Amino acid sequence: MDLFNLALICQPCNAIKGAMTPDEYLKLRDFLENELPMARQDVLSRLGKAVKLAAGMRRHAMKAKGFVKAKQQVAVQEEF
Asked: Do 18 and 51 contact (CB within 8 A), yes or no?
């Protein structure tokens, strides 16, 4: 297993990054910082809220289909 392409990233940033590649995410952050510094925090905040909303909608849909009985039963497996 090659580990050369792994990078440490905090959970909120990883959630905001979503399906973007690390390079795309960094370019977005650089663009916001350099071109729209006053809007940077607002944009990142909105992305974070959208991620939480989408996660809640997925959880609700899974619960409605009987995949999840209660929030406490949802287990997250992390790979290191």
From this structure: yes
- The CA distance from 13 to 10, in Å, is 5
Please write the tens of the pLDDT for every residue from 14-62.
Answer: 888 888 888 999 999 999 999 999 999 999 999 888 888 888 887 777 7
pTM over 0.85: no
Residue-level length of the chain: 80
If you write DSSP's letter for every residue of the chain in order, what string do you get?
A: ---TT-----HHHHHHHTTS-HHHHHHHHHHHHHH-HHHHHHHHHHHHHHHHHHHHHHHHHHHHTTS-S-GGG-------
